[in-house]
Each structure stands twice: as C-alpha cells, then as structure tokens.
Amino acid sequence: MKRVLLCGSNGLLGQQLALSLSVRADLEVLNTGRQRSFVFDHHLFDYTQLDLTQRGDVRSLISSFQPDVVINTVAAVDVDWCELHHEQAWQGNVATAEHLAEACRKTGAHLIHYSTDYVFDGRQGPYDESARPGPVNYYGKTKLAAENALLAAGVRTAILRVSLLFGSGTGVKGNFGLKTVRMLREGTIVRATNDIGTNPTHIADAADAAVACLERGTTGLYHVSGATFATRYEFARTLANVFGYDPALVQLVNAGDLRLPAARPPSTGFRLDKAGRELDYRPMTLDHACRRFKDELFHLSTN
Ligand SMILES: NC(=O)c1ccc[n+]([C@@H]2O[C@H](COP(=O)([O-])OP(=O)(O)OC[C@H]3O[C@@H](n4cnc5c(N)ncnc54)[C@H](OP(=O)(O)O)[C@@H]3O)[C@@H](O)[C@H]2O)c1
Q: Which of 57, 83, 194, 255 has its CA 20 to 30 A from that of 7?
C-alpha cells in the first residue's frame, strides 16, 4: 500500500485529485490544505491542516506520515495578484516548493509538482519540454524558480506543466471556464481576446497525469495540457455552444483593452508527445472536455 500526501486538497485541482485518489484501495491518502476544514469533510477522507509556508510543519508532517509520494497542487495562482504582491507570491510559489523538496529529500519520497505554461514567453508555442523558458510576469518567474529549486534539490521529482485549468469544485476560486459559464447563464457579456491562447486543460486530465507518475515512479519534466489549442475567445465560444447559451454574448476585445496588471504570454500551448509516450497521457479534445464539464455542473446542481 502506497502512502500519498496530497497538498492543496481544497483547491480546484486538489479536489479533483482527492476524489480520484479516494477510490484507490491500494493507496493510503492524507489530504492537506491551508484551511482548518476540508471541503469533503462529510466523506470519510483523512485530512489535516498544513500551511506549506511553515517549513517546520512541513518537515514534521512528512517525517511522521512517511509518504511514498507527495503531490503538490499548492500555489498562489492569481497572476495579477502575484504581480502586485511579490513577497507573498514568492512565499506561496517558491518557498512552499522548497520546503517540500527539503522534506522529501530527507525521507526519499517521490514529489509530483504542478507548474505552468506561464514559464514561457508565448512567442514560439507550442512548446515541448526542451524549449527555453522566459516568463513575462512575476507569477511565471516564481513558478520557474520553484521548478529550478526542485531540480537542484536532489529530490525524486516529476514536474507537470499544465495550462488554463478548468473544472468544477466546491467553493473554488473562479477559473476562466467556470466564470464564463456563470456569466453566460446570467446573460452577461463575456469579453474575451484572440490575442492570448493556450490549451485549456480539464482538471481530470491534469489529475490523471499525476496518477500516471505515481504509478510509474516517473521523474522529469512533462507538458500535460488539454489536446486542443484555443484563444480565450474560442474557448468562451466553445463553452457557449456546448452549454447552449447565446454565443453572441462572447465579445471580442484586444488583450490591451482588458488592462490587466500582469503581462500574459500571447500564445503558449504544448506539444504532448513526451507525456503520450512515457505516461500514456491521452487528454480530451476541447469539445469533449467542455461536454464533460457541462455534465459535471449539471450533476452538482441536481445533488
Ligand atoms: N488554474 C490554472 O489555470 C493553472 C494554470 C497553469 C498551472 N496551474 C498550476 O496548477 C496547480 C493547481 O492550481 P489550481 O488552479 O488548482 O489552484 P487553486 O484552486 O488556487 O488551489 C491552490 C490551493 O493551494 C492552497 N494554498 C495556497 N497557499 C498555500 C499554502 N501556503 N499552504 C497550503 N495550501 C496553500 C489554496 O488554499 P486557499 O484556498 O486557502 O487559498 C488552494 O486550496 C498550481 O501549481 C498552479 O500553479 C494552474
């Protein structure tokens, strides 16, 4: 029986992983999060509070639980907030990863860590794993620094770069997919740009990649996004079509008109060949992923 410590279990991807791992009889899973309580408290899940900025707490939990595998979904993911709060962004994205790496190196645990397409400048996508990073905003800089810290730490680590996660969850902060669906449902105009694009990734695909690494003991860097490249405008229009809302509610704007504090890499997107070969990673097309998203939201609203 493998012991798994999941970090960030209350987050968007963390909730998906908590559910995926909970059905595995061959795993003993301890969920952790910054909050005192767990969103799935009414289920029979093991959960303990853990703030990854607290180095001593990370060390002592890992040394007492002795996980075989640690999965890290924790991050400060709000790109504009990171641009305005450098110190907290560094603590949330880099210090947290360093604390895990240090503790995992001591116990020999396998560390599976999530990163982002925002490590790239977005001028020459789609990118494979050998492409040279060049972040254009502070969030991307911190995520790249975390990757480098893990690679330098001498820990067995798999780094999974994902892009534009979407999916449903309990009390999750709005992701682009969820926000768009909420606005379309209310009949509100969605302003979206064709100047920024990547492969939107359903959280189920992102979670499957970690499970594949866990099963295989994989280490190294992997690009694991959805199968289809789309600009924000195309993604929003796809959601409108799949959910049956009026596509005319999605209106085209220039990225500059959105006046965002942080610069965005214009066109990232990933080549997925390595993950396909080595992890048997077969993500959904955008259309398929949006249909699944619709089914999940419908299921949530009727339960
Ligand atoms: N979302 C995207 O579009 C996207 C795109 C590319 C890559 N990624 C990467 O994918 C991973 C998962 O992202 P996500 O969208 O699932 O993020 P999320 O929904 O914001 O979840 C992150 C979780 O981490 C927790 N957390 C933050 N700081 C913590 C700390 N110091 N100690 C313990 N927990 C802490 C948060 O807790 P609170 O609820 O208390 O804040 C939250 O539950 C991240 O590595 C992110 O960089 C995300």
A: 83
